[in-house]
Specification:
Blueprint: E1 5-11, E2 18-24, H1 25-101, H2 108-112, E3 123-126, E4 138-139, H3 175-204, H4 207-211, E5 222-225, E6 228-231, E7 238-241, E8 244-247, E9 253-255, E10 260-268, E11 272-280, E12 283-293, E13 300-301, E14 306-310, E15 320-327, E16 330-332
Parallel strand pairs: 3-7
Antiparallel strand pairs: 1-2, 3-4, 5-8, 6-7, 8-15, 9-14, 10-11, 10-13, 11-12, 12-14, 12-15, 15-16
Helix pairs in contact: 1-3
């Protein structure tokens, strides 16, 4: 059987030097085939490398964009949080304003007088009473004979059923939820704007009521004791605190929270030097433990007039202002009447 061969002659530029290479045709074909395969593989590797290089560059670009988007997301989320907080403050402000001006026709004396209740079985007493009246001890009981610690069961989170594959779900910070929050904030803004406009139109027709409604903090200081039941510093028993204590420097000015007429200016064993202002519409404010009184009975007062100074007279443990608001002679929470916090 003849075997085909291929001869390669290699001629040098020197005379008489010639090389001869004889290769089998089969080996030549195999070599060519191998070369083609390797060429294809090399080409594929080059193409793949170029693709990976391009993808790497694209990934770097996407990572940079993603980092920038995250920063923008945080900025937008921060602004949205500020907007939601602002809307919440507006909501509280409007609610307070409607409540204290009785725009919605609700029973203010009942709604504003609710304060923290004492624990079951504890005796309570009134803190300050007008001269000539003695405090009466009462007992507070939970409705229906239930102890207040039984209510804790209604506020506990149900356990996660791990056997059934239940998972605890927590809020996620993503663009979808952010978009929903933005839509809700925009809608609430429109609603709040409409509500404020309606409130303004209503109150514009009640200028005298608005001027006579307590709405400012009567002195500069910080709240130390709120409205409601507390442990008395004198008897160590639960006592109904009918007002709001504001700690301030001795001699700090006390301002009238609204227009009115001075109905009392004198000394009371419990309140010390006491000023009372009748604002009309059943609203009366009291200012106790003052060191000096600058007004007299029957004097007309405008909002922000100085009426007294902070002191420590009467039944008091330190310099502060005891501020009360009464509606139809019922003590209510004065903090509902502080709109300039």
């Amino acid at each position: 059987m003849d075997r085909k061969t291929v001869t390669f002659l290699m001629v040098s530029n020197r005379k008489g030097i010639t090389k001869r290479i004889v290769v089998s045709a089969a080996w030549l074909k195999a070599g060519l085939a191998l070369f083609l395969v390797l060429s294809v593989i090399a080409s594929a590797c080059v193409v793949d490398y170029v693709g990976l290089l391009s993808q790497s560059i694209e990934n770097k670009r996407l990572r940079a964009e993603n980092s920038q988007l995250k920063q923008q997301f945080q900025v937008v989320e921060g602004k949205l949080n500020a907007l939601e907080s602002g809307l919440e403050r507006v909501k509280g402000f409007v609610t307070k304003l409607k409540l204290i001006t009785n725009v919605e026709g609700e029973d203010r004396a009942l709604k504003l007088a609710i304060g923290p209740l004492p624990k079951t079985g504890q005796s309570v007493e009134a803190e300050f009473l007008p001269a000539g009246r003695q405090p009466a001890a009462v007992h507070a009981h939970a409705p229906g004979g239930m102890d207040d610690h039984h209510d804790d069961v209604f506020f506990q989170k149900p356990p996660v059923d791990e056997l059934q594959g239940e998972l605890a779900v927590e809020g996620q910070r993503d663009y979808a939820s952010l978009a929903i929050r933005i839509d809700q904030a925009v809608q609430e803004t429109v609603v709040r704007e409409q509500g404020v406009l309606e409130l303004w139109e209503t109150l514009s027709e009640r200028q005298s009521l608005l001027a006579a409604t307590p709405s400012i903090k009567p002195t500069r200081g910080w709240f130390t004791s709120k409205f409601g039941y507390r442990i008395s510093p004198f008897s160590n028993r639960p006592v109904m605190h009918n007002g709001l204590d504001i700690a301030a420097a001795p001699g700090a000015p006390i301002y009238a929270p609204a227009d009115g007429v001075v109905s009392f200016a004198g000394y009371d064993p419990g309140y010390g030097k006491l000023v009372s202002i009748d604002h009309g519409y059943g609203v009366v404010t009291r200012f106790g433990h003052t060191s000096q009184i600058f007004v007299e009975v029957g004097q007309k007062i405008r909002r922000r007039d100085t009426i007294a100074s902070v002191g420590n007279t009467g039944r008091s443990t330190g310099p502060h202002l005891h501020y009360e608001v009464r509606v139809n002679n019922v003590p209510v929470d004065p903090q509902n009447y502080v709109l300039d916090e």
